[in-house]
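Two proteins, back to back. First:
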Amino acid sequence: MSIFRALNSLEKDTRSKRMKKIIGSIKSDVAKGLTLSHSLRRTGIFSKYVTALIKIGEESGHLADNLEVIAKQQKKERMFRSKLQTAMMYPVFVFGLTFVVGIGIAWFVLPRLTTVFGQLNVELPLVTKIIIGFGDFMKFHGLQVVPLFVIFIAILIFLFFINPKTKFIGQAITFKIPGLKTLIQEAELARMGYVLGTLLTAGIPIVTALKSMANTTTTLMYKKFFNYLSENIKVGGSFETSFKDYKKSRKLIPIPVQQMIIASEQSGRLASVMLTIGEMYEEKNEDSTKRLATMIEPILLFIIWVGVVFVAMAIILPIYSLVGNFQRGTSASSSDSQPAASAPVAQINPDESEKNPADKSAGNPDIEDIKMLKSSEDFNVNIREEPGEQFPVIRQAKKGEIFEFNEKKDDWYNVQLDEENSGWMQESYVIELTPQEIKSELEKRAEENVEETSDEAPQEEINQ
């Protein structure tokens, strides 16, 4: 089949309008008598070393063979890029999904937990405070922070991996990561061996082949290295001297591979040895890709596990603290079953309690100085060691329980629990009694003291 008929067949099978236009232009050039390499060079769809290989095939009469070599080489290039992308796709996908889920939890779930924990009236652990603080921050600033963070990540990706002027930074970072370094190095060595071996077998000069190799690779470190080899060999140098003079040659090309290239150059078998190197590192690269995926999976699972445990602890620890405080409050309430014993606020003589109830307070000249308050009647109220929710709860006041209080600090009352101990109750959960209510409470407690004294008297006589 002639070149013109082959191009005509390709044009009929191509669905892309752009490719139909390019093939039509090539057909027109060939019909005018131009060479295929010249026409392809004008379209710009192939690199210089590909068009050079086609030109050599035209001049030597091996155009079909050289086109087959180019097809195989392009297939290898696509395979190498696919392996690198596959190795990076899994961690990128997992981290991206984790980021989306984490932002959703922080934005919509954590603010609700903040409301719930705020009503528990318990001391929150540090991990819970961090989660709640982050949730509050996302609640009020999420609409500004999340888009800015996404834009910031996109800018970093563009600068480190896309922008031609700055992507060497990202490549240098990835080349220092152990697993990725091995993967990139093996892919570059496999590409170098196959491309150089193919070009040299096709009759391309070594200098031109190295320049083509520099144009083929996408890693800037290897691009600079191949350009250096091309210039050094062009002025009469060898692979051996070039490897010695280039400082980073050992990081890019392992010593055994360097020895193979040097020996093959001296023996005149460079092309076949380069093809052998390409096949060897292609197999290694395939194994490294599978091994890297196996290594990354447990690492990602561990990172996700740490995040889940952190959130779970932040939610569960306050609940345990609440249950513990409730149990301590219940035990304290059972041991202090008599309200008068827990708060002996009025020193009233039992003998005076037999007087007229209206005169029960007459024998106590300090009754006007006594101040009392009543706890909430809706739930038990925490009594803390010091004024502040960060201090431990020493007991819980029963619903509507009445105490004498000594002082008030900010929005906290210091209440008397017994003759020696006192605690602090928050102002929003208590009510101060009026003088008349205080008088009634003192009379009530005086009557209870009289009853206790009369009940204990027979037992004392028996003991005597």
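And the second protein:
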Amino acid sequence: MESKKKIFIIDDDSFLLDMYSLKFHQSNFDVTTALGSEPALEKFRQGYVPDVVLMDIVMPVMDGFELIEKLKEENLAQNAIFIILSNRGQPSDIARGEALGAAGYIVKASSTPSEVIDKVNTIINNISKK
């Protein structure tokens, strides 16, 4: 049997964090969460290495783009698959996410939680095949 994928969900909205945590847990993921970029960065610095990082962009103090830049700068979570889950769906945001190495960009407002899980699984499977 395939081992559970470790997913790290980072968002500053505790309701969404809890909901996605439950949904991914029910879909056989090993889930860790962080309420915002700063606690997430601290977890990475402590050595946490997830398979997938699902993160919001709009967060106080440090946005998701800045967090990805910081992780790259500090060589943290180098092999993790980064997927952005945000309400900001402007082409410039999507392009910036891709430029930073995000493997996917999901717009929250146009995806149900089940669709988010399906999209995350599709991205993981596409990367695994490469």
